[in-house]
Specification:
Rossmann fold, alpha/beta, 8 helices, 23% helix, four-stranded antiparallel beta sheet
Length: 371
């Protein structure tokens, strides 16, 4: 029997994507208040006949079919270091209690929740204590772990995963997840021009990260934060919903990639990425400089350049497939800013695959969900 899931705060479908990869799961309903995320969810998956609500506070538990697993990355803005950390004083911070309300009414065998690491320590730990106390009151045993997505894909993204179950035999068999080896970021051989090449997290091609040669390597790809005095690392910074907002004042935010070249390349208007001109903006190594004019500025590209991650790269760093990316881009016609937001607000799919696979195994081992 498939494990039936109610997908709360579903975003563009991270939990569903992970469950579909594993098989053995089905979905009875979903909920999110972001119209773009809901449209993406419905574009990627057939949801006809499933329960839907666009407001967690308005979920009618009498209308939801029975299910076995409640999942949800409840809004983290009230707890995140990027926000004001008002916790339960922020209306978004109380949405956890909507999950608790559903647990109380439906008593599923399992739940899996996700949030940012500060949820454990904000208000001197009182918030997390209140959450655990409420779950315990409802009869659930809980485990939690802070997992860094860099163990799965080259993106530093630490998140707390909270798993609960009614059967005490599950203790220690879903969490902790132990995974130490990550993947490197490498370039797809798609023959795009520099600056337009898309980098793949699966590791199949020409250039490799700084871990394979360091800053002085030739024609290498390096990850940097998108601000002044950038630091070079082997993993991308945490993808955020504002990935396309340009330079950041927060150190280490907004990941970008750096290209290193041999030689000296004449460049026109180095401070402007899009200009009207005849011929290429960057000329080959050793070529003559562009014609001097009264309106254009000139320069040379000596060490390399920094550019933002493309939306497709952000999707890959979250564990979504190129097929899913292009389906949303073409069928919904989403702008880059909306694609960045979808990726930044999501959950890394391979982490969920790991957790759900362990939950599936323990359910089979103890035959918790009866046919």
């Amino acid at each position: 029997m498939a494990i039936r899931i109610l997908d709360m705060f579903c975003g563009m479908s991270a939990f569903r994507t992970a469950a579909e990869q594993l098989g053995g799961f089905s979905f009875v309903g979903y909920c999110d208040n972001d119209p773009t995320a809901v449209a993406a969810y419905r574009t990627l998956y057939q949801t006809e006949g499933e329960y839907f609500c666009d407001d967690a506070r308005a979920v009618n538990t009498d209308e939801i079919p029975d299910f076995d697993l409640l999942v949800g990355g409840f809004p983290c803005v009230a707890f995140s270091a990027a926000g004001a950390r008002k916790a339960f004083d922020d209306p978004r911070g109380t949405l956890f209690f909507e999950l608790a309300r559903i647990l109380a009414a439906k008593h599923p065998a399992f739940f899996v929740f996700e949030n940012v690491p500060p949820i454990r320590t904000i208000c001197e730990g009182q918030v997390f204590t209140a959450i655990l106390s409420e779950l315990s009151r409802l009869g659930y045993l809980c485990e939690w772990q802070c997992i860094d997505g860099a163990a799965y894909l080259p993106q530093s993204r630490k998140r707390v995963f909270l798993v609960g179950y009614l059967d005490p035999r599950c203790a220690g068999e879903i969490l902790p997840v132990e995974r130490k080896s990550g993947k490197t970021l490498s370039e797809l051989t798609d023959h795009q021009t520099q600056g337009k090449r898309v980098y793949d997290a699966n590791g199949a091609a020409i250039t490799q990260t700084a871990s394979c040669g360091g800053f002085g390597g030739k024609t290498g790809l390096y990850l940097v934060d998108y601000n002044e005095n950038s630091k070079f690392t082997d993993t991308a910074r945490c993808i955020t919903a504002r990935q396309d907002s340009g330079m950041s004042h927060r150190k280490g935010e907004h990941s970008a990639v750096f290209f290193e070249y041999d030689g000296v390349y004449p460049i026109i208007n180095p401070d402007r990425e899009t200009i009207r001109q005849n011929g290429p903006r960057i000329r080959p190594n050793g070529a003559p400089a562009h014609c001097l004019t009264v309106v254009d500025r000139h320069g040379i590209l000596h060490h390399g350049w920094i550019r933002r991650l493309h939306p497709q790269e952000c999707f890959r760093l979250m564990g979504f497939s190129d097929e899913q990316f292009f389906k949303l881009r073409t069928e919904l016609g989403l702008s880059d800013s909306k694609l960045y937001k979808l990726a930044g607000n999501s959950i890394m799919v391979p982490v969920l695959v790991d957790i759900l696979s362990r939950l599936k195994a323990v359910n089979k081992k103890y035959e918790i969900i009866k046919e």
